[in-house]
Amino acid sequence: MSKKKCLLFALWVSVLINMIYADILSLMDASSPIRSIMAGTSSVPAGGLLVGAILMESAIVMIILSLFADKKFYKWVNLVIAIVNILAVISGGHGSYYIFFAIIEVITLLAIMVIAFVDLKIN
């Protein structure tokens, strides 16, 4: 397996772990919409859980694709999925802990886009 594939694999794992942990901390934040939903004091918008599931699954699938997908196909899928995840990250959450995770996630997603799209001579 190439170093580039291993690096993309590791970066997607990192993104996913950061997303999960940001969501876990949101459950501990009394002012978080996620906590309000879990406590039953507010409801999930129609289709909200499905959208969240699709977003998380996109990062999970990218972990697998980083190991097995064709180079040309994977280059474009990285670009699209990274952009979708960046938009979701910057439009969701609040609080200093979320901003901290969001910065790390966006930087990691931008690195994924660069590494996948530019031939960096990483074998």
Strand content: under 5%
**Percentage of helical residues?**
over 70%
Q: Helix count?
A: 5
Spans of at least 5 consecutive residues with low confidence? none
**How confident overall, as mean pLDDT?**
88
Global shape: elongated
Topology, number of strands: 0
SSE order, as H and E?
HHHHH
Largest sheet: none
Give the end-to-end Cα distance, rounded to a whole number of Å. 9 Å
Q: How does this model look, in words?
A:
By secondary structure, this protein is mainly α. 79% of the residues lie in helices and 0% in strands. It has five helices and no strands. The protein has helices at residues 3-28, 33-39, 48-68, 71-91, 96-117. Helix 1 runs antiparallel to helix 3 (48-68) and helix 3 runs antiparallel to helix 4.
Quick synopsis:
This protein has 123 residues and is an all-alpha fold. The protein has helices at residues 3-28, 33-39, 48-68, 71-91, 96-117.
Structural topology:
Layout: H1 3-28, H2 33-39, H3 48-68, H4 71-91, H5 96-117
Helix pairs in contact: 1-2, 1-3, 1-5, 3-4, 4-5
Q: Key terms for this structure?
A:
79% helix
